Amino acid sequence: MTRIPEPTPVPPSAHINRTHENHNQDQNGNKDNFSVPDIQLQIRDLKHPGAKRFLSAVDAADCMTTATLNLLKLLYHTPSDPETTVPPTSSVRLILEDIPGVAYTVGHGADNNIKEIHFSLSYIAQINPSRVADEINGVVTHELVHCFQYNGHGAAPGGLIEGIADWVRLHCNLSPPHWKQEVREDWDAGYQHTAYFLEYLEQLFGHGTVRRINDKLRSNVYAEDVFWIELFGREVKDLFAEYTKSFQDLHN
């Protein structure tokens, strides 16, 4: 879903490489070899202006494949590394239809392994012409994160789930120009607000911090009073207070 002046620069750890190959390759030539599930596209109104815009701006297979590989690289180690476990998502269908809002993702199947991303044709139709491809890639990337992330067995706050998705979008260089880093009252305000807090934690505790958060959401039922202390030895409210102070000190 898509919800900074220009955003505070965040060093990218994954780039859109516009390739159909089922792997990412780093500067040393090493391949991650992540598996991309079955991907499908369904357009429910080909005559809608948003459908023409989508088809003119992006290649759906390329968009979904690249976004999937980028998010897997950010949230998981390589498949041979047992430290994290990629969810058993077996297929993702991108459905373009005339719905209110921007987009949402749902899961089906016995293991919730069949995913559907519903993307608004009306929203696509009104995107600034200069940003159509980037915005489509950004929204699809965000929604695909929901197809591959963990949620603390359904107990994690929605703001954390949405924040992780937007954190991935930040690191794929797909943040829209209206995003800005600003402090909200709550750490789990969601979307880019929580994404920037997560980036603060990533820099404070080191590369792979958000990956660790996601993996703990796999193995534990989320309970705020123990989740953050077990990860970082500190309560999230204290971490957020430090983030707020560091932001205010930087901008005062």
TrEMBL record:
Pfam families (UniProt xref): BSP
Renumbered residue ranges of the record's region Disordered: 1-35
Residue spans of biased composition, Pro residues class: 1-12
Family matches, as PANTHER family: PLANT BASIC SECRETORY PROTEIN (BSP) FAMILY PROTEIN, PTHR33321
Lineage of the organism: Eukaryota, Fungi, Dikarya, Ascomycota, Pezizomycotina
The protein, known as: Plant basic secretory protein
